[in-house]
Amino acid sequence: MEFTQSWSTTARVINAVILREISGRFGSSRLGYLWALITPAFSIGALYFVFLFIRNRDSGEIPLLMFVVTGWFTYGLYTSMVSDLGNAEGSNRALLMHSQVQRLDVLIARATLATLTNFTFFGCAALVGALVEGSGFPQNMMLVFQSFCSAGLLGVSLGITIAGLSTYYPYALQFLQPVNRIGFFVSGVLFTADMLPSWTYAYLKWNPMIHPVEGMRQGWFETYQSPILDLNYTFAIAVPLLAVGLYLERRTRRGIKF
Amino acid sequence: MTDLRAGKITLEDVCKSYKTKTGWNHVLKDVNIEIESTDRLGILGRNGAGKSTLMRIIGGSELPDTGRIDRQISVSWPVGFSGHLQPSMSGIANIKFCARIYGKPVDDVIEAVAEFSELGRYLHEPFKTYSSGMKARLGFALSMAIEFDCLLIDEVTAVGDAAFRRKCDDALNNLSENKAFVLINHGLAAIDRLCNRVLVLGVEETPFLSTRVHKTIKAYEKALKGEGWKRPEPA
Predict the structure, then answer these.
(1) Contacts within 8 Å (CB) and 24+ apart, B197-201
(2) CA-nearest residue of chain A to B19?
(3) Which DSSP category does A91 fall into?
(4) Which of A77, A80, A164, B36 is deepest in the core (most CB within 10 A)?
(5) Mind listing the pLDDT tens digit for each residue in A50-96?
(6) Burial B214-229, CB ≥16 within 10 A → b, else e
């Protein structure tokens, strides 16, 4: 009975925090939640036109718009998880004044919101891609799902770890931001692995974020076969990191330190 | 609504310290108190004595380094000037959030807060645009509307105009018999008027708890003037 009541309280709090996040982030704007979709749409549109007219990027048999969308979306899910979760306590410290609200509730709420936002956006972008380029829908839905999960899980794991570390090192997230910016350029958002010389594969494989991006493209496009895809590698990093993150979260909850 | 719950909050050997640049600051040491569901507890102490820390620990928003806390009754957040309220959200949105996390009917809470706070159309404005008096009104009204068994009130009744202060006093005086509150207020007269127990921090090695509110306040006032602390005789 107590367990059921506790879960019911947790579910209520997570729901309230999600609504609060939406209201806090987008409530002051007339377009509200649409901004979450419009902002990346501008960025993807800009990248698409750069590739189309200026760099004339050859994406093989992959439709160019969906090439950009699949890369942007997958990497975007990871980075939004890291920044939203890593910064969860910093921007919600006052919330923890409520004994009902645990830091983990805020983390779950933010992860749920980031997943829903990215998922909705990706669905819209895929629809636009289908209309503009006649690109089809995923050829291998399971691989797309696994890639989505691996990118999200890696972001969640790193975000929770950063949230815990922030108790000791408040600027932990700031140190990670430049790494993620560089990661954007080396994680396959702007290229596929088969565009690069084969000798680079041995180095590329070490980047845990290139596999979800490659997996998303292989799963989405029938014609693309990644030469380096290994989602197990990403999961093998994300799962232990999640355990470390949850341990740190537990130890640093409500200001407790080692 | 009459709350028939009877219970208490128990703090046993609670200690709390913070690391500062010059070393550890032991803010609370061996706090042992019980807050019954009918108590009106005032907390006295100089700035930095640990009043707000103790309140956060009672409320559960901060954990002690050592010691045990048992809450058998529902406890509010520390009701301060703004605290937990989101600055970019409107007053209404903040009320809705609090009602949701405590599982209270949203419309009823909005109605109660609107009536008590008398903020009118300002409730639809972002919280960050409120004056400190308006923030205090909203914070206090919200904590009353959620109907906790024990309210934690941190200085909030000291701001606002005379009418609001009187309204807060009336509200606290008229709380049902099974509701408790813990009050921090630098205006000692308010504690003298409203509380039946008082806890003094920073005058002895461990916190001093007394039911002789008036005499304890007088002794504390002397200590503040540098005349030394003399514990009032038990009744």
Answers:
(1) B197/B39, B197/B40, B197/B41, B197/B42, B198/B41, B198/B42, B198/B43, B198/B44, B199/B33, B199/B41, B199/B42, B199/B43, B199/B44, B199/B54, B200/B44, B200/B45, B201/B28, B201/B43, B201/B44, B201/B45, B201/B49, B201/B50, B201/B51, B201/B54
(2) A257
(3) T
(4) A77
(5) 887 766 656 667 888 888 889 988 999 999 999 999 888 777 777 87
(6) eebbebbeebeeeeee
A254 touches chain B (CB under 8 A): yes
Q: Which tokens hold the place of A213?
A: 């991006």
Q: Rounded CA gap, A65 and A198, in Å?
A: 25
Greatest CA separation found in chain B?
53
ipTM: 0.71
CA distance B162 to chain A (A): 28
**Which residues of chain B make contact with A256, given a CB cutoff of 8 A?**
63
Q: How far is the C-alpha of B161 from the C-alpha of B69, rounded, in Å?
A: 36
What's the pLDDT tens digit per position in A139-168? 899 999 999 999 999 999 999 999 888 878
The reported pTM is 0.80
